[in-house]
Amino acid sequence: MDSKTLQELEAKAKKLMGFETDKKITWCGNCGNYAIHNALARALVLENFERKDFVMCFDVGCSGNGSDKFEAFTIHGLHGRVLSLAAGAALANSKVKVIAEAGDGATFSEGVSHLVHAVRNNYPVMFIHHNNENYGLTTGQASALTRCGVKMLGTPEGVMVEPINSLDFVLGLKPSFVARGFSGDVDHMTELFRAGLKHKGFAFIEVLQACPTYNRLTPDAWYAERVRNVEDLKSYDRTDLWAARKIVQDVDKEIYIGLLYENPEKKDFVSLLKSREGAVTTPVEEVKHYDVRGLI
Predict the structure, then answer these.
(1) Residue 139: which region, alpha, beta or left (left: phi > 0; alpha: psi -120 to 50)?
(2) Residue 264 vs residues 78, 177, 290: alpha-carbon distances, Å
(3) How far apart, in Å, are the Cα atoms of 137 and each of 58, 153, 264, 286?
(4) How many structural domains does the chain have?
(5) What's the pLDDT tens digit per position in 75-118?
(6) For the chain, which has fewer Cβ within 10 Å, the N-terminal or C-terminal residue?
């Protein structure tokens, strides 16, 4: 390894460590959040993001506890409302990349209406959906994605209602970018996050995440036996919406991960606004200051 390459690696390592805070990490041992946190930091470094280039919006839940673990501009929002928060940030300042994170409870129950319109409007946001199939922070209640038969604290006899197929739900809204990763594969997640950071519209990235404390049905080993990389399908066309909807139907035996669907032709919300045509400044730069001392 030559000295130039070594210096570049050392610089990246230093930058990676610079995204860490001194806050104590309180996730359970073997929680998938460690891997997601690491993969996102790697992606930001590899895509040459500085702190000034992005803002992170966190929902309430185990994933939301990452808000003080990232040395960056972070906002911890209300339960289920992170996508409306992220949309506002993205529309106010399109010069920064907005990253949002939330769990399956917040996304598909409290915040499902926000998800619908975030996808429809194609807001310029990268959204990481932490799917551990339960409400982990409130000690293991079933979510809308918990599988039938799974016993949770709130459903000791087992979940009786069929879960929502999260990716089929999102694909039914005609999105511009849908991907799925697995918390047991940091390298693969890193590449998905890099693609999401470069996407100009709404990038929905689901991470199948182990919850070692409250959902022991689907640990990393369970997923490792079942996940398949969509890139191994030689004839797969990720611009084919119906092919994507077909491939996400199986969530039990062959679970495909990777960039499953992409529509690069779909314009993001900001590009559709007639009122912003020709604008060279962002709304946040156009805010004027008024002296209100005379009114007080």
Answers:
(1) left
(2) 31, 8, 41
(3) 14, 12, 36, 40
(4) 1
(5) 999 999 999 999 999 999 999 999 999 999 999 999 999 999 99
(6) C
DSSP letters, 94-136, are TTSEEEEEEEHHIIIIITHHHHHHHHHHT-SEEEEEEE-SSBT
Asked if residues 64 and 76 have their Cβ atoms less than 8 Å apart, the reply is yes
Q: Rounded CA gap, 126 and 123, in Å?
A: 9
4 within some domain: no
CA–CA separation, 112 and 81 (whole Å): 9
- CATH number, domain of 64, equals 3.40.50.970
Domain contains 151? yes
**Structure token pair of residue 220:** 């990393």
- The contacts of residue 116 (CB under 8 Å, 6+ apart) are 173
Residue holding tokens 């959204």? 127
| 28-71 residue pLDDT tens | 999 999 999 999 999 999 999 999 999 999 999 999 999 999 99
Residue among 19, 121, 55, 76 nearest 284 (CA): 55
Distances (CA, A) of 255 to 28, 155, 222, 239: 25, 26, 11, 19
Q: Is 24 inside a domain boundary? A: no
Number of C-beta neighbours around residue 46 at 10 A: 16
Would you say residue 20 lies in a domain?
Answer: no
Comparing 179-183, 245-249, 286-290, the range with the smallest average pLDDT is 286-290
Tokens at 295, concatenated:
């009114």
Sign of CA dihedral 45, 231, 258, 237: positive
* E strand or H helix at 16: helix 3-18
